[in-house]
Amino acid sequence: MFKTIFMWFLFGMLVVITVSASLTIFMAREGIILTGREDILSAALESHGLRCLEIYQERGPMSLREELRKIADETGLFIHILDERGNPLLPYPRSRKLKELWFEAKKSRQEIINRRDFVAIFKRITVGDGKNYILVGILPKRPLFPGFIRNPKVLAVLVVGFIASVMLLAYVLTRHITDPILELSQAAKAVTEGDFSIRVGEKIKKRRDEIGQLGRVFDEMTCYVNELLEAQNRLLRDISHELRSPLARLMVALELVRKGLPEHNQKLLDRVEKEASTLGEMIGQILSVSRLEQEMGKKSFSEDDLVQFVRSIIDDSKIEAEKDGKVMTLHSQVDRLVVTMKPSMLRSAIENVLRNAIRFSPKGGEILIYIEKEENLAKVTIRDHGQGVPEEDTEKLFRPFYRVESSRDRQKGGVGLGLAIAKRALEYHGGGIEATNAPGGGLMVTMWLPLCKG
Hints:
This protein is of the alpha+beta class. The protein has 3 domains: 34-144, Beta-Lactamase, CATH 3.30.450; 195-297, Signal transduction histidine kinase, dimerisation/phosphotransfer (DHp) domain (Helix Hairpins, Orthogonal Bundle); 300-450, Histidine kinase-like ATPase, C-terminal domain (Heat Shock Protein 90, 2-Layer Sandwich). It is built from 13 helices and 11 strands. The radius of gyration is 47 Å and the shape is rod-shaped.
C-alpha cells in the first residue's frame, strides 16, 4: 500500500508541476499572461528615451545612433524614436514593420504588443519645444532558463534537486496516510489474536479526518466485542457448572432408586441413566468449546514434531481401546514432520477424532492411523472399522450437535461436538478436516496441517 500511494503521489505531483510549468511558459511566450518584465521595460524605455531625445536635439542623429547602440549592447533593449506620423528618426531595414506595429498599438490603444519572439512597448513623449515623439522599446524574448541550457551540469543538478524534492514531499504525504493505517492494521491483528486490550494510539484518535474517526470507532468496536465475548463465555461456564451439580445429584438418586426397584424395572433406569450420561458429556463438551474459544484468543504457537505428537496421543488412548480388545496401529511414511501448533488445542482435535474411532470400532477391531507428507502438508488419517455413515451425512458430521440418524450413533451415543471442535481447531491452525467412508467399511477421517517452512 505504501509503495502504491507513494508512486501515485510522485507521479501526480510530477505531472501537475510539469504541466503547470509548461503552460506557464507557453502562455508567457504567447503573450497570454504577463511575466512582470513589461513594467520594468516601460520604466527603462522612458528613462533611456528621454536622454536619447536630449542627445538627438543637442548633438544630432549620429550621436543618437551611437547612444542607441550602446543601450542595446548593455541592456539588450532596442530603442527606436518615431515622429508623430510613425516615421523613425533613424531609418533602418525594418522601419516599415516598426511603423505597422505602431499603428496596430495606436488602433488597439495598447502600450504593449506581445509577440512570440519579442515584446514591444510604445510611449508618447512631448518635449520642451512642443513636438511629440513615440518611443518604441523592443526586447527580444529569450528562453526562460538560458543558463540551464548552456550549462548541462547546472540543468542536471536542478533536475535531480527537483525530483528529490518531489519524492520527499510524496514520502511525507504517504507516511501521513499509511502510518496510521498500518497501526490500525496491527491493532486489528492483535484483536484477531485475542488481545482485546489493544487500543490505537492517541495520535490517531486526535486526528480530525476520516482516519481519526476510524481509530475512535475501532476502539469502541473492540470494547464492545470484548464485553460480548466475555459475557458469552461467562454464560457458557455458568450454565455448564450450574447444570453439573443437579446432574450429579440425579446420578446419585438413580443409584439409590435402582437398589429399591425390582430387576424388570431396571431398563427404565438404564434409559434415564444413559440420557443423564449424555447430558453430562454434552456439558463437558460445552466447557471444552468454551476453553477452545479462550485458547483461540492466545496465539502461543510452537514448532513440534507431529509424528511424535501423534504417538503420545495414541499411547494415552491405549487404555480406553484395550479394555474392549481394540488395537491401534500407526503407519507413518516419515520419521519426522515439523508443524506449527498450539499443542493443547491440536491434541484436543486429534483425541476427539481418535476417541470417535475407538467408540465406533467393534470389539476386537483395529483402528488405523496413517501419517504422510503431501507437498507442503502433513496429513493424519484415522480409520475405524465400524459401520460408517451415509454418504449424504459425511459433510454434516462437523456441524455442532449433529448426530447421524443411524444405528452407529444410536448405539454408541455421543453429543455431536467432538468433530466440530476438531474442525475449528484445525482450521485455526491453517489446516482442515474431512470424512469419507473407507473401502470395505468404516469411517476414515483425514486431518491436514501446513508444514513449517524451511
